């Protein structure tokens, strides 16, 4: 199906598009009370199987505007991959309403495929025994990408992702980092408007991760590609995304900026103070407190939401200060604390 022949999605009734203009809806991705329930059978005794339901996604609602880069994070079994599969049309929601560019993914999966790109870190979309370039040629035909556009996109992706030496190599001979870059290029060959990335840097070395993150920022800046990123590597979120959503037990428990996440998680920054000589713990106003003393160096914890300026001024006025530095909070610790607090009051689920 040629995308040039597809009608614009924005005029679909009820999507938020401007009537009569054919414009896109204000919310490019929109979920309203979406649920996904799986029927599971478990062995109960020798011959008997017991059937029960697992609610992987529970009354999930959020919107993503065109061009946003959003981190979508949560523990294993939280419902992240289930959400992505519903957004691509692989799974059908059990309830609620879901739209991507005004399209219902489960009803118009083929139409939507021309507007989205997907990378699953655990599974490749490339043909295993063929050279990498052959996978791209097949996608050229599958998506009916105009020849000129295909050559332009391929050349750009090969350069930005450093794929030149890999094009004639069978996919099965590529390293994990090389294959992942190859998968990202494959997902972007047809100029998708939204890119879903499910653990795109899993197993990659530091250099490969850096290259992928820089590439994603560039694609978003140049083409306003909407990116929804699920990952366990929170540096991906910190370096790529301006917004983060946290899901736990199929429910959205946080939606906002990284700074706000630190406030919700009651995280702390640390002021590392170097004095001229060893001193007793410095006196600081609550809620700041000294958490460690090692010779002339002391560590002072204070809420991440507060400025360090007043604390620094107080210490400099009263103590023989030589040097200091501020260490930002560990986002992984913030989210781990959030999960632990919820685990104490939320029934265990799996997805």
TrEMBL record:
Keywords: Antibiotic resistance, ATP-binding, Nucleotide-binding, Transport. GO terms for molecular function: ATP binding; ATP hydrolysis activity. Pfam families: ABC_tran (PF00005). One of its GO terms (biological process) is response to antibiotic. Residues 1-25 are annotated as: Disordered. Residues 1-10 have a biased composition (Low complexity). The keyword Cell inner membrane does not apply. Residues 41-274 form the ABC transporter domain. One of its GO terms (cellular component) is plasma membrane. InterPro entries: AAA+_ATPase (IPR003593), ABC_transporter-like_ATP-bd (IPR003439), ABC_transporter_ATP-binding (IPR050763), P-loop_NTPase (IPR027417). It is found in: Cell membrane. Residues 11-23 have a biased composition (Gly residues). It is a peripheral membrane protein. This is ABC transporter ATP-binding protein. It comes from Streptomyces gancidicus BKS 13-15. The lineage of its organism: Bacteria, Bacillati, Actinomycetota, Actinomycetes, Kitasatosporales.
């Amino acid at each position: 199906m040629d995308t040039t022949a597809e009608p614009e999605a924005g005029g679909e009734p009820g999507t938020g598009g401007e009537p009569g203009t054919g414009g896109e809806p204000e919310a490019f991705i929109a979920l309203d009370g979406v649920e996904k329930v799986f029927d599971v059978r478990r062995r109960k005794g020798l011959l008997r199987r017991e059937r029960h339901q697992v609610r992987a996604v529970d009354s999930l609602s959020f919107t993503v505007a065109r061009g946003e880069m959003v981190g979508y994070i949560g523990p294993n079994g939280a419902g992240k991959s289930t959400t992505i599969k519903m957004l691509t049309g692989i799974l059908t929601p059990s309830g609620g309403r879901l739209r991507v560019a005004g399209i219902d993914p489960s009803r118009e999966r083929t139409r939507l495929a021309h507007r989205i790109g997907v990378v699953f870190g655990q599974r490749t979309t490339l043909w295993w025994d063929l050279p990498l370039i052959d996978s791209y040629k097949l996608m050229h035909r599958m998506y009916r990408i105009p020849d000129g556009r295909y050559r332009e996109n391929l050349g750009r992706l090969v350069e930005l992702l450093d794929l030149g030496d890999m094009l004639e190599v069978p996919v099965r001979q590529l390293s994990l980092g090389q294959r992942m870059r190859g998968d990202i290029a494959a997902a972007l060959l047809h100029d998708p408007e939204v890119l879903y990335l499910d653990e795109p840097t899993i197993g990659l070395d530091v250099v490969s991760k850096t290259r992928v993150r820089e590439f994603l920022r560039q694609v978003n800046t140049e083409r306003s590609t909407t990116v929804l990123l699920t990952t366990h590597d929170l540096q991906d979120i910190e370096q790529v995304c301006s917004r983060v959503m946290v899901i736990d037990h199929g429910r959205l428990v946080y939606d906002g900026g990284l700074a706000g996440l630190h406030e919700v998680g009651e995280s702390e920054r640390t002021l590392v103070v170097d004095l001229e000589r060893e001193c007793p713990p410095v006196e600081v106003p609550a809620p700041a407190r000294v958490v460690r003393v090692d010779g002339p160096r002391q560590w002072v914890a204070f809420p991440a939401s507060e400025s360090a300026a007043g604390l620094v001024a107080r210490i400099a006025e009263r103590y023989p200060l030589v040097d200091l530095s501020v260490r930002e909070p560990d986002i992984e610790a913030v989210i781990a604390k959030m999960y632990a607090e919820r685990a104490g009051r939320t029934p265990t689920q799996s997805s």
